[in-house]
């Protein structure tokens, strides 16, 4: 990108509108940015030159805030490179090496973020892929990966740059996005642009706008609270008092340790900084008291002082002569050096008592590296000498401090604001989404949250039919947790319910997961399966079947249940010696393994189970890590399900 103009120029474009970008072919493409209020902005594109036509030129006037936007029409991609020129009177931005093609937004958590560099070894070992399939030679695929960021309010811009997905520049590209792009690029023979905005371990609510996510009470409460705190995750003095008073009540006799008159002569000694392990308290989570005496110079009397301490893992309450001068209870306080003021009226010459109540809530506890000192201006006293310490109440009794919401990647709408809003309204052909693992604990909410997010994005892009294809989470042993043993199955069910929205598709992964790895390496097949939906729906291949067998109906036939399926072209097929992971519900409500048989000329499956005279319901793959034992004639696995 070339900027021509004067120092202090105000003409600005967002990072996604930059040299090397891919613009959606045959579309009305928004170009937007900032300029001086009232300035006329001219956008010129030269794609008409290839056919002897004059450049496309559009003018617009920046509004009172300096914002402007135009839409320019793009022709069919022919493989040429173009220039887009944006200018005001004194300034010009030239975008070079611009191509037209198909643009897709890729988002979600770590399985979408997972890079080509982390998947290539597995790809090379696959008997299903040729050297050409996984070659990173120039492939007319380009990617723009949004830098990680979060914000309380929508941002105007984000970090990132356009790269060719070839050689070393391909390695940081999303593997799922890349293999999707390879599949459709080979069919369409046009450039493919991937705009990748993803962050591992994130939930759907952080990718949803505040206006929409606030319809969900828990998320609305988090946003209201952080805004009420001015965007800061700090606790009020009232909240701090309430917490430490509760700790005092849990171990009432310990409150006397704060007093400057308390005799700690029988306590053990140490120096600061020190850890719980150093004190022989390895594995202990809870309170440890530290006390020392500071000899304050007479000349410091009546002066404001500053107490500096190393980070204290996790929290602390610090006292000067029995009066609290500071406390850190926020999340992340374990890594924060302490800096507390000692008010002038509390400073007298001679001996002063300094007491620290440290609270570790898990893992390593104690002081981190750094100096402990007391200072007045340029003068200071080293506090690393002798301290006395005593183990206090365990964390199970002390409890955990209140955790106010903070602006980070876990706050509802925070990633929408910083990593999605700056991309709107960049013209895209559709969306690819791989997420859900981090919403297992709220699977029931996901039934409404996920479709709300989809509609939210479509509304923001002003296209209620924007194609949205997503991946059902793969088999993985999550282990026991508070969310319940069927949380994964209910999350998958919630994902499947989102296909009731138009222009959606769900890529099934029940046969390409890894029960021991939440990040299965077979990203090329996931990308290919997403591409099947695009090829079928958008790119003129109605003969392609993108869906695996999906339950249509269940009919009781005596002591048997007959299941009928859609998307069974070529007939149902076993993937192993037996049909596994089918269950029937008995009269007492329990589910028992069922014997399954393919019937009805390959379109149905009949279930029966010993001791179940009249099955009440059936389910399939209703667990974390079970892998598909049935596929359709196209090789795609049967979708998990339960009957009602």
From TrEMBL:
Q: Which GO terms describe its biological process?
A: carbohydrate metabolic process
Gene3D superfamilies the record matches: Immunoglobulins, SGNH hydrolase
- A Pfam family of the record is SASA
Top-level taxon of origin: Bacteria
- GO molecular function annotations of the record: sialate O-acetylesterase activity
Q: Chloroplast: is it a keyword of this entry?
A: no
InterPro entries in the record, alphabetically? Galactose-bd-like_sf, Ig-like_fold, SASA, SGNH_hydro_sf, SIAE
Give the record's keywords alphabetically. Hydrolase
Q: Does the keyword Hydrolase apply?
A: yes
Q: Where does the Sialate O-acetylesterase domain lie?
A: 427-531
Q: Name it.
A: Sialate O-acetylesterase domain-containing protein
- Look up and give the organism this protein is from: Saltatorellus ferox
